[in-house]
Amino acid sequence: MNWAETLNKYPSIMYVTGGLLIGLFIGYQVLPKLLPRKTAPLSAAELQSVVTMQKQLEDKLAASIAAIEGVGDAQVQLSTPLSGSRRIHRKASVTVTAADAPLADVQVAAITEVIASGIDDLLPGNVTVFDSAGRALNLEVVQEYEQKQFWTNIAINVCKILGILAAMITIRFIIQSIHKKMLGETQGC
After folding, report:
1. What is the mean pLDDT of residues 118-136?
2. How far is CA 136 from CA 33, 52, 91, 139, 149, in A?
3. Number of domains in the chain
4. Band of pLDDT at residue 160, cut at 50, 70 and 90
5. Closest by alpha carbon to 104, among 127, 66, 71, 132?
6. Max avg pLDDT among 40-54, 56-70, 83-97
7. Does residue 82 lie within any of the structural domains?
8. Which band of pLDDT confidence, cut at 50, 70 and 90, is reported for residue 76?
9. The CATH number of the domain where 102 resides is what?
10. pTM for the structure as a whole
11. In this structure, what is the dihedral angle of CA atoms 110, 84, 142, 133, given to the nearest 10 degrees?
12. How far apart are CA 93 and CA 127, in angstroms?
């Protein structure tokens, strides 16, 4: 007897749990698909090739950024995990020297977009732009992205633990709570 037949045989269990058991079973069926798979390690020649290509990409991106008006010089550092399952964690940092005046927010946003669009799977929130004094010029954008990433990771963990159905209910509640909070703030103004 599989889990669906068991739940059909005992409908009171479904009623008492509010459908939570279906979410648990579905969640555990999906879970193996979410787990990372191991990949074969790279040989020394392959690793050298990857490092060389990454350095060339960094140089090309730095040249593109240096061509933006107001930018004197730029350096790009990419953090690209070699494992295929961790590519979502790519990050980049850009150090810029302004030519004359400090860079405007529009220029910083342009630099961020140049880097993010030049690399697969690199999100703008994972790009940090620094000035020559070491100050993060796009700190608010990075913090906003990290906050979204934090809540997304919580939703993923809830999904793994409780199953898809329970997570959808929880996420809907969170969204409604945030929406009510935002409506309360706008009505108070």
Report:
1. 85
2. 37, 28, 14, 5, 19
3. 1
4. confident
5. 71
6. 56-70
7. yes
8. very high
9. 3.30.300.30
10. 0.54
11. -70
12. 6
Structure-block tokens of residue 28: 């555990």
Q: Is residue 3 part of a domain?
A: no
* Angle CA 45–48–49, to nearest 5: 85
- Helix 164-188 to helix 20-34 angle (10° resolution) is 100
Position 52 in a domain:
yes
- Beta strands across the sheet bearing 91-98: 71-79, 91-98, 127-131
Residue 136 CA to residue 108 CA, distance in Å, equals 10
| Residue 36 in domain | no
What DSSP state is assigned to residue 136? Answer: B
- Write out the residue range of the structural domain in which residue 85 sits: 44-138
Predicted confidence band at 185 (pLDDT cuts at 50, 70, 90)? Answer: low
AA identity, residue 150 = F
Residue 76 contacts by C-beta under 8 Å, 6 or more apart in sequence? Answer: 58, 59, 61, 62, 65, 92, 93, 94, 115
- At 25 the pLDDT is 44
Give me the chain's average pLDDT, please.
Answer: 74
Best CA proximity match to 120, nearest among 87, 75, 82, 148? 87
